[in-house]
Every structure is written in C-alpha cells, then in structure tokens.
Amino acid sequence: MDEIRKSTRDGAWAALFLAPQVIGLIVFSIGPIIAAIVLSLFQWDAIGTPLFIGFQNFVDIFSGGSDFWIALKNTLYYSVLTIPVAIILALVLAVLLNNVKGKMIYRTIYFMPQVTSSVAVCMIWLWMYNGDFGLINQLLSYVGIKGPQWLTDTRWVMPAIAILSIWWGLGYNMTIFLAGLQGIPRSYYEAATIDGANAMQQFRHITLPLISPTTFFLTIMAVISSFQVFDQAYIMTGGGPAKASTTLVYLVWNTAFQEFYMGRASAIALMLFVMILIVTLIQFKFSDRWVNYEI
Fold first, then answer.
1. Got the DSSP string for 58-81?
2. Strand 42-43, strand 51-52: pairing
3. Is 205 found in the same domain as 77?
4. Are 173 and 111 in contact (CB under 8 A)?
5. What is the pTM assigned to this prediction?
6. Residue 247, in any domain of the structure
7. CA 114, chain centre distance (Å)
8. Mean pLDDT of each 10-residue bin along the chain, 295 residues long
C-alpha cells in the first residue's frame, strides 16, 4: 500500500513539473498547427464570418493565384547561397581556432552577433549596403570596383541578404563545430602523426568523419533556418525590389496581415511545413551513408 501511495505521489509530482511544458506545447505548437490546418480550408479576412471553400486555397497557390512560386524560388536560391558557405566557413574557422590560446575570447567575439537583436543587425547592414555612402561600396571603391545597388537591384538583393545571414550565424555554427572538435581524442592525431599522415590527411580521415554528427546537426538546422528566413526581407527590403526578396515566410505574413487572406496564408504555411518536413526526412534517410556516430 505504501508503494502505491509513493508511486501515486511521484506521478503527481511528475505531472506537476511536466504540466507547464505540455501546456506550452499544446498552446503554442500543436494548437496553432491544428488551427492552421482547419483555417486553410476557409476563406476569412480575420473580421467577417469564415467561409468554407475546401481545398480552393491550395488550388489557388499551385495555379499561380498567389506569389507562392516566386517566393519558393527566392527561398531555394537563398538556401543554396547560404547553407554550403555557412557550414564550410564555420568549419574552417573552428579548425583554425581549435588549438590557439584564448579561444574562449574569440568564441565570445564571434558569437556576439547571434545574441544581437535582428532589427539592430539589419539596420546596421542597411547602412553598410547603401549604394551611395555605404561602407561596403566605399571599401570596394578603394580598389577600383564600383559597388552595386545591393538592396535595390534584383540581381544583388538576395546575395546581399545571404551575406548578412552567413555573417550573422557564423558564430553559432563555429561554436558548435568547436565543441565537436574538442570531443575528438588527441590520441587519434598522435597515432596518425606517427604513421606519417600530414595535416590535410588527418583532417580528411580523422576530423571530417568524427565531426560528421555535428555537421549533420548544423546542416539540418541551416536548412530549417533558411526556409524560415523573414526578418532580413521584412526589415531591409520589404520583399522587393520587384518581389526579388519575397520569401515563403514573408509571403505568409504579407498574405495574412497585409492582404487579409488568412485561409490562403495558412495554406502556404502548411506547404512550408510539409516541405521542411520532407527535406529533413530525406536528410535523415541518407545520413547513414556519411554520418559516423562512433569514436
């Protein structure tokens, strides 16, 4: 009987401590997903009575009734620009800082942009990208290069946003890579040195395989983050010029809160969710071919 009381008491305490997390999950995650699924089947302007229209919102999306395909192309372009460069730069930087003195100081300096407000970061880069007096074009002029109109030229606006995003997330990716590098036993490198392996061979056959779980994690996070880019487009360009920086999340916001097509915005959000889910599952499917979890 005492054991039953103890088990009941322990279960009650467990439920009490888990309740805030479960409530938060239901209210802020599961609830909105269910609401989006339901709302995607309606036409609603956020004021009047919702009108059930079935799958018409999805038909409009795929038939060109919205800017979905433009936003998808821009988002994929942004992802291609940012993900490989961000991962490679962070890895190179982490390798360079792994064995230097004062790595904690460098790590703090590089990580500082990550904890800076997105509005502040974007406003600073707005000034830097200014085509007439911005810092970047001023520096380019010193070497005889006429800088472009970064944020008003359709050819350069997405690369400009990508450069900002790479810089912004570099410290986070580098910190995670550093943690992975420090988990590799030094004995592996010592044995490789005795066998005559040079630095490049050690990097290729020891470092890369043993940090593959870290690389996989950062790749997953980078893909998800790239599909959800919003702040840069909203603050710096407003989706322009000529919708060249309209991303999927920006399109959801614009459709919902500027055009007041709540149902269509929910449908676009669901399509974004499905795409991220599919890409993530594909990455997990092929991870066994290159991710090594054994040390």
1. HHHHHTTSSSHHHHHHHHHHHHHH
2. antiparallel
3. yes
4. no
5. 0.91
6. yes
7. 12
8. 72 86 89 92 90 93 86 96 96 89 81 89 94 91 92 95 95 92 89 89 91 94 95 93 95 94 94 94 90 74
